[in-house]
Amino acid sequence: MYGKKVAIPRLQAWYGDSHTHYQYSGLQMSPMPWTQTLRAIKEDIEQQLQTSFNSVLINLYRDGNDTVGWHSDDEPELGSEPVIASLSLGEIRDFQLKHKQLDKKVIVPLSSGSLFIMSGTTQSYWRHCIPRTKRVKSARINLTFRRIVTS
Length: 151
Hints:
Elements (H helix, E strand, L loop, with lengths): L10 E6 L5 E3 L2 E3 L6 H14 L5 E7 L6 E4 L12 E7 L2 E7 L5 E6 L4 E4 L3 H4 E5 L9 E7 L5
Antiparallel strand pairs: 1-4, 2-3, 4-11, 5-10, 6-9, 6-11, 7-8, 7-10
């Protein structure tokens, strides 16, 4: 952050097809191979959405202290209008979106089993975050399925 290395305020893992290397915020991630469970979840979501994914970023938010700051998933590897399918498991957390140009903010409480889709120009016009909160005491796992178009 701002040229300094800081610990990521959550735990994460990257799974996917062997060529799906991903880089963001100075992190370079090489995929671990799909597990049977992750592949089954991916295939179910692909069928529902009629699209395909070749990778998943898994975040473990251990409690309300774990967070991800405002950002857009606009890395070149994702293409110009990526489809990102975000599956939440565990504790409810507020997913916030803020428009980059307009004074507009949206808060979506994501409960366990919620599937939130970002597609089209979402990453061009919006930032999103999971803010820190004192009211959350238990864990949330978030699986964000993506398609890497270059590597």
